[in-house]
Amino acid sequence: MAARPHMVIVHRWLADYAHYERYVDHSRYAVSYVTTEVGAPSLPASAAEVAIVDATDDLPSVADAVKRLAENQGRPEAIIALKEDDLLVGAQLRQQWGCPGPDIDDVIPFRDKLVMAGLVSRAGLAVPAHAPVRHPHDVVEFGRDHGWPVVVKPCAGSSSAGVIKVDGPSECAGLEFAEGEPHLVQAFDGRQIYHVDGYFDGTTMGPLRASRYVNNCLGFRTGDTLGSVEEDDPDLMRSITAFSTGVMRALSRKPVVFHLELFVDRVTGSCAFLEVGARVGGAEIPYLWREVHGYDLMESAFRLLAGQRALPWPRSIDAVAPAPGTDVAGWLLAPAPTQRPCRITHATSMVGRVPGPYAEALLRPGEILPAADAYYEHVGGRFRFRGRTSREVEDAIVATSRDFHVSGELAIQRHRQPA
Fold first, then answer.
1. 225-260 burial string, b = 16+ CB within 10 Å, else e?
2. Residue 357 contacts residue 320 (beta carbons within 8 Å)
3. Which helix (H) or strand (E) holds 76?
4. 285-304 tens-digit pLDDT
5. Residue 22's CB: how many other CB atoms inside 10 A?
6. What is the longest distance spanned by two Cα atoms in the chain?
7. How far is the C-alpha of 261 from the C-alpha of 216, rounded, in Å?
8. Taking CA atoms, which of 54, 113, 145, 241 is between 20 and 30 Å from 120?
9. What are phi and psi of 40, to 5 degrees?
């Protein structure tokens, strides 16, 4: 009997953000996985083989794992990596093994924040002033030219890791820039931040939804809750869709599932670019698209990485703003109750409250919240909302944020997890 074609999936989630067994027939394909100890328990029993690594964004260790899997299962015909931090590893391995899907040149504009900002700016779209920085003096000079505060961040970071808001030159002396880790500085824009999620076919937009953040990602790093609610104002959505289309045309001529962040003036509709990833948004976004909108963005991303066509989408989401009678979605994350890893001692269920979420993901007392890498997954609580209007959903998010309580105690972690 001929050997089954081999597919490799690089995976780090414990939650079921991606439904791999639906996306590829594990009896027809030998589907092997490269994962971490945290992600391994969520893998399907039908996996042909599993390789454990400390970090899925460490190219040498993942490349070694893929080589071993290829020796056992055959040369891979596809290599899939869906998490933002793993996109470049996946692209490098696809080029190495001659697999279809996005290559390094396709991925770099969505991973290097200086590159993406330059491309969007050259397309004539609004981008906050920005520059590379290697030394605190660079930040001082930039602030002197463009005003304070400024934002300093890694060029290839994610989940706001390493992002610092600097209010003046006196705060620059303590800044540190590691050798080999490029950073940029950009002018602060205090307008409302939106995230835009959807599919771009290389020319035009497919399904798209824009959501305004409740609080912000940087604040979540320091203990605030973080949420978002989809926008239902048709005028705002037209402005956001037009600007988002221009951004995606500046960055790619190929189909891509994207998670884009913008600054938006909610009165005038004017927009400015923040950053973008060639991947499905994090937090509860994959669930909301499946459960509320009836479309699996994660499956479309999976297909594109395998060199296939994206899923066709239902007419209900083929519009700029939510169609009459369709639900608006939103999500909320509560931060970890103490430093991870921690043992949960209490978590208040919020499902069934009015107003409240229709679904939640909580750890039970005694369970360990690990110091794992999927930052927006391993949190104090995750909640999903749906309603007829943005206001209805936002009210439920605010009420849940106010009434939810989680507590925990420090726990000893036996195995090192990626930070």
1. bbbbbbbbeeebbebbbebbebbbbbbbeebbbbbb
2. no
3. strand 76-81
4. 999 999 999 999 999 999 99
5. 11
6. 70
7. 11
8. 145
9. -60, -40
